[in-house]
């Protein structure tokens, strides 16, 4: 993974500040794994400030009482040709997301 840019480092610092200050006061109630702040940090570190911020915004919109839940890591790769339509970086659909080994566990039983 390449070294994060200066804007990405700034955003990662803000996420860390949130984890140290506001998160303990609000409580740990994220509906997804990994948590929304961990997802945002991973998306920004992997894909940069621009794409990672759009992914984090989409995730925060999904993480609501009427939203989804389950396993939802940041994507490994970006969609092609989305830089000029940045909202396409994010996954805006809610619903249950099974962990990657859920199908394997069902077939073993």
Task: Give an overview in words.
With 109 residues, the chain is mainly alpha-helical. The chain has one domain. Helix content is 50%, strand content 6%. The protein is built from four helices and three strands, in the order H-H-E-H-E-E-H. The protein has helices spanning 6-20, 22-26, 36-62, 102-108, and strands at 32-33, 69-71, 96-97. It has a three-stranded parallel beta sheet, covered by helices on one side. Helix 3 (36-62) links the parallel strand 1 (32-33) and strand 2 (69-71). Helix 1 (6-20) crosses helix 3 (36-62). The longest helix has 27 residues, at 36-62. It is globular, with a radius of gyration of 15 Å. The protein starts with 5 loop residues before the first helix and ends with a helix.
What would a concise description of this structure say?
The chain is mainly alpha-helical. It is 50% helix and 6% strand.
Map the helices and strands.
Elements: H1 6-20, H2 22-26, E1 32-33, H3 36-62, E2 69-71, E3 96-97, H4 102-108
Parallel strand pairs: 1-2, 2-3
Provide keyphrases for this structure.
6% strand, 109 residues, mainly alpha, globular, single chain, 50% helix, three-stranded parallel β-sheet
User: What's the total helix number?
Assistant: 4
Largest sheet: 3 strands, parallel
Based on helices, strands and strand pairing, what is the structural class? mainly alpha
Which strand order spans the largest sheet, edge to edge or round the barrel? Answer: 1-2-3
Ends distance: 38 Å
Give the fraction of residues assigned to helices.
40-55%
Mean pLDDT over the full residue set: 83
Radius of gyration: 15 Å
Contiguous low-pLDDT stretches (5 residues minimum) are none
Shape: globular
Tally the structural domains: 1
Report the sheet-strand fraction: 5-15%
Number of distinct beta strands: 3
């Amino acid at each position: 993974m390449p070294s994060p840019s200066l804007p990405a480092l700034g955003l990662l610092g803000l996420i860390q500040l949130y984890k140290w200050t506001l998160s303990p006061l609000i409580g740990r109630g994220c509906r997804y794994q990994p948590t929304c702040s961990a997802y945002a940090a991973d998306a920004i570190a992997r894909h940069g400030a621009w794409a990672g911020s759009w992914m984090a915004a989409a995730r925060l919109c999904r993480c609501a009482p009427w939203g989804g839940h389950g396993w939802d890591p940041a994507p490994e790769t970006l969609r092609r040709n989305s830089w000029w339509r940045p909202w396409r970086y994010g996954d805006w659909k809610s619903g249950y997301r099974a962990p990657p080994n859920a199908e394997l566990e069902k077939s073993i039983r």
